[in-house]
Hints:
The structure is a single chain. By secondary structure, this protein is an alpha/beta fold. It has a domain at 1-32 and 81-121 and 171-247: Rossmann fold (3-Layer(aba) Sandwich). It has eleven helices and nine strands. It has helices at 2-14, 41-45, 47-53, 56-61, 63-73, 83-93, 108-112, 140-144, 174-182, 199-206, 236-245, and strands at 18-22, 99-102, 117-119, 122-128, 137-139, 161-164, 186-190, 212-216, 229-231. The protein has a six-stranded parallel sheet with strand order 3-2-1-7-8-9, sandwiched between helices. β7, α10 and β8 form a beta-alpha-beta unit. It is elongated. The site of nicotinamide-adenine-dinucleotide (NAD) has 28 residues, from loops.
Amino acid sequence: MDQNISKLAGLIKNSPRTVVVTGAGISTEAGIPDFRGQNGIYRKLGEDRVMRIINIDFFRRQPEEFYKFYRQYFHFPPVEPSKAHVVLADMEKNGHIYGVVTQNIDNLHQKAGSKKVIPIHGNAERYVCPARHCQAEYETSYVDNYPEVVPRCSQCNTILKPDVVLFGEQIYSYIDAREMILSARLVIVIGSSLTVYPLAGFVREFSTFTQDLVIINKGPTYMDHAAQIKFDTNHTGDLLEKVNRLL
Ligand code: NAD
């Protein structure tokens, strides 16, 4: 393990551009469960059910049912960034990493101080009015305090949508996220099983070049075979802290 930590520090030092790709696993140490892990909602509720309800068509057709489910299962507890988020922000500040592409919707990279973050699945702390002429934005507190289950825009009365990418919708910043990953010399994947496309596809595309891929994930991922180093750990914060000390 220690040998691999020095090896990763060496790869980062020699890399002119390092990009970090994160998934739900980086936020479990902050207290937000992932979907596929032991406490994840896919285990509890079934992946099919989640995909059917957290879906743009379902949202449009049955907003009341959508919001009942969303309010119950997608309301993240108010948590602070984990050590891993903080160390990554520090690495960016010191020029060791270029930026982060994340599947997470918890806003924790931004809260930790990372500046160059592409949150391709949006931000669960924001709601938007989907009416083209309006597009007003709201914070979670507006929805939390709304007197009905289905929140509406205070300006035009349209039903608000969480500012997250639902199943059946395009990810945000597709081109920028792909470009950031493909332009890297080193990609470090943290806390993602690399199951969800298109992000998993960008990493797959990247790994066909001659650059370096490192994976830090508890359990297997779909790209383990292509990784120069694979860390199988839950203690991502401690690991990154050790790497950071060597930079
Ligand atoms: P995933 O659930 O498929 O994979 C998470 C991986 O992280 C798992 O392999 C798990 O074993 C690993 N893991 C858990 N804790 C870890 C730790 N401390 N250190 C290292 N690895 C750890 O997650 P995914 O690939 O990100 O995809 C799930 C989808 O769910 C994404 O689209 C994401 O938007 C969404 N999601 C987001 C959040 C969030 O914003 N925090 C939480 C749950 C799900």
